[in-house]
Write a structure and sequence with these properties.
Elements lengths: L1 H10 L2 H4 L6 E5 L6 H7 L1 H4 L3 E2 L2 E3 L13 E3 L2 H9 L3 E7 L2 E6 H10 L3 E4 L2 H10 L4 E6 L3 H11 L4 H16 L6 E4 L3 H16 L7 H10 L6
Parallel strand pairs: 1-7, 1-8, 2-7, 3-4, 8-9
Antiparallel strand pairs: 3-6, 5-6
Helix pairs in contact: 3-10, 8-9
Bound molecules: guanosine-5'-monophosphate (5GP).
């Protein structure tokens, strides 16, 4: 994987590919679809990107840490963040608030670092509206039966919450064509390869080169013959 990254870097035409704004990637997919597993498996590749840590009012699951998976906060604090326009987007998901603190995202993009957000559908749509150039990725399960099996296997939700999560999953899948890319998580290794390929392709888009960078590049190549 490192080797691949080195190779890709070596192939970048550095004069044109330097100093661009970061790209905002949004990953959406039902809870239980394996977004976290994909992210951990792709961690060495994703290390160069900023993963935005969301704020949520939902309870902490065993093994989760404040400031790592989420900032676990109370409803009042969350509502203060909404009122203070401190969130890029937020949504109510199965009875709890989830939202993206805007400042770290803005700062990272301005520094030229790519950012990855993991959002349910309502939040993903808000981001697409505010940042139309955001790259929208959808992670789907191989089947709804498999999704239910994975959710049950996790065993962290009541039957009622699980049914709500499944209902939300169906709604999200119905919105599939609003997204730029589909990754089916039938096998983690393959899903990770696809994620990495998509990110690489997006970074190589010619339109990311600004007029100023292009002019600068052309000036640099001037040899006095014209
Ligand atoms: P979970 O409770 O399983 O961690 O997350 C529930 C859902 O909320 C998942 O689909 C997850 O991607 C989504 N989610 C996590 N953080 C955010 C956020 O900041 N904003 C929005 N809109 N959804 C989020």
């Amino acid at each position: 994987m490192d080797h691949d990254t080195d190779e890709a870097d070596a192939l970048q035409p550095s004069g044109l590919a330097t100093k661009r704004r970061g790209i905002l990637f949004v990953m959406t997919g039902a809870s239980g679809v394996g977004k976290d597993t994909i992210r951990s498996a792709a961690a060495p590749f994703l290390a160069e990107m900023v993963y935005s840590i969301s704020a949520t009012t939902r309870g902490q699951r065993p093994g989760e840490q404040h400031g790592v998976q989420y900032y676990f906060i109370g409803r009042e604090q969350f509502e203060q963040m909404i009122a203070g326009q401190a969130l890029l987007e937020y949504a109510d998901y199965v009875g709890d608030y989830y939202g993206t603190p805007v400042a770290p995202v803005k700062e990272a993009l301005a520094r030229g670092q790519d950012v990855l957000l993991e959002l349910e559908l309502v939040g993903a749509r808000q981001v697409k509206k505010r940042v139309p150039e955001a790259v929208m990725l959808f992670i789907a399960p191989p089947s709804l039966e498999e999704l239910e099996r994975r959710l049950r296997g996790r065993g962290t939700d009541s039957e009622e919450k699980m049914q709500k999560r499944l209902a939300r999953a169906r709604e999200e899948i119905r919105a599939l064509r609003e997204f730029d890319y589909l990754i089916v998580n039938d096998e983690v290794g393959r899903a990770v390869t696809e994620l990495e390929s998509i990110i690489r392709a997006e970074r190589a888009r010619a339109k990311l080169v600004t007029d100023a960078q292009l002019a600068e590049f052309l000036r640099g190549g001037h040899d006095g013959n014209d």
